[in-house]
Design brief:
Layout (H helix, E strand, L loop, with lengths): L2 H12 L16 E7 L5 H16 L9 E7 L2 H8 L2 H4 L3 E5 L1 H10 L5 E6 L18 E5 L6 H11 L5 E6 L6 H12 L5 E6 L3 H11 L5 E5 L3 H5 L1 H10 L4 E3 L3 H4 L4 E5 L1 H16 L15 E6 H6 L6 H6 L2 E3 L1
Helix pairs in contact: 2-12, 3-5, 6-7, 8-10
């Protein structure tokens, strides 16, 4: 090949590469820290990591070639603080976070590194962004729903179990949205004749003990609020709800797949693809302040009919008809 032909061919290949990344130091590929709430060996988290990586690849970013992905998974405030302390040494060009406690830890540590979040309920009230349309700082991303959405979980659980008169609302008490969720559930519970019991739990052992105590009187149910605790320990918690005869609802389909009764929430996989698109734009020079926070538009209901039968529950045909997936 003649020299001029070689140079022309090289130019054509380069045109398909992503533009130079923001913050590259010494010519190194940009570093993106992918930080989720949960356990690193959780198959659900591994699957979502793969979705994010593949979405970046479709946009021209190949891990180990022109981008570097560092992964962290944490549960609880202590682990969140430990990873946040790494940020100064890592110097990531962007951070991708999943869950509000992880976002809070990253946000406390840096007000300059771009952060793209997922699985956060109300970033405005929590002080992460100035508004959804104009985030105004170093943070943007994708919300899952508003706090008032929690009322839907109570409505759906009551529809499945009309005799339910008591509901435990369980979550890690360190979660920023804990109080707001409980308020939203209480606002509609009185009109439904349901007593609400906030039930904090920091571990699967605490969750088991709380359900054992709550399940002794009849007509109880459990709303499991979004948290890494429930996501990571979903099989143990689902088994505990069965042992103590407590119908339960969670936000993601992984829970009924693990023998929980039902779930209703956002299609989480799609948010990981969307996060890759925002990271792509940021690495090409866009500012998080100029990228609006996007609200979820796709929701799914999943019901485990086998679990319902084990609990002696007859799920109404109307609800089964509305379900996106019925596990039998």
């Amino acid at each position: 090949m003649r020299r001029r032909d070689f140079i022309a061919a090289l130019g054509g290949v380069a045109a398909g590469w992503p533009l130079p990344a923001r913050g590259q130091q010494g010519g190194r590929p940009p570093l993106v820290l992918v930080w989720f709430g949960g356990s690193a060996d959780d198959p659900a988290i591994q699957s979502r990591r793969n979705v994010f990586r593949d979405a970046l690849r479709e946009l021209g970013w190949i891990d180990g070639r022109n981008i570097r992905l560092e992964h962290r998974s944490t549960i609880g405030a202590d682990q969140n603080r430990a990873v946040a302390a790494e940020l100064d040494a890592l110097k990531p060009d962007a951070i991708v976070t999943g869950t509000a406690p992880v976002l809070a830890a990253a946000f406390r540590q840096t007000k300059t590194t771009p952060i793209v979040f997922m699985q956060v309920t109300d970033p405005v009230s929590d002080g992460f962004v100035a508004s959804l349309a104009r985030p105004g700082g170093n943070v943007t991303g994708f919300t899952i729903f508003e706090h008032s959405f929690a009322g839907k979980w109570l409505e759906m659980l009551k529809e499945v179990v009309p005799t339910m008169t008591r509901v435990a609302v369980m979550q890690n008490p360190d979660h920023p949205a804990w109080n707001a969720y409980v308020r939203a559930i209480r606002e509609i519970a009185s009109g439904m004749g349901v007593e609400v019991t906030p039930t904090p739990a920091n571990s699967s052992t605490e969750a088991e003990a709380a359900m054992a105590a709550f399940g002794q009187p009849p007509n109880g149910g459990v709303i499991l609020l979004p948290s890494a605790l429930v996501t990571t320990n979903r099989s143990l918690i689902a088994a505990a709800t069965l042992r103590h005869r407590l119908p339960s609802i969670y936000v993601v389909r992984d829970y009924p797949v693990s023998s929980g009764l039902m779930s209703y929430g956002v299609d989480g996989i799609e948010q990981f693809r969307q996060a890759a698109s925002y990271v792509n734009r940021i690495l090409k020079g866009a500012k998080p302040a100029d990228l609006p926070v996007q609200a979820a538009t796709k929701f799914e209901m999943v019901i485990n009919l086998k679990t319902a039968k084990a609990l002696g529950i007859s799920v109404p045909a109307t609800m089964l008809g509305r379900a996106d997936e019925v596990i039998e």
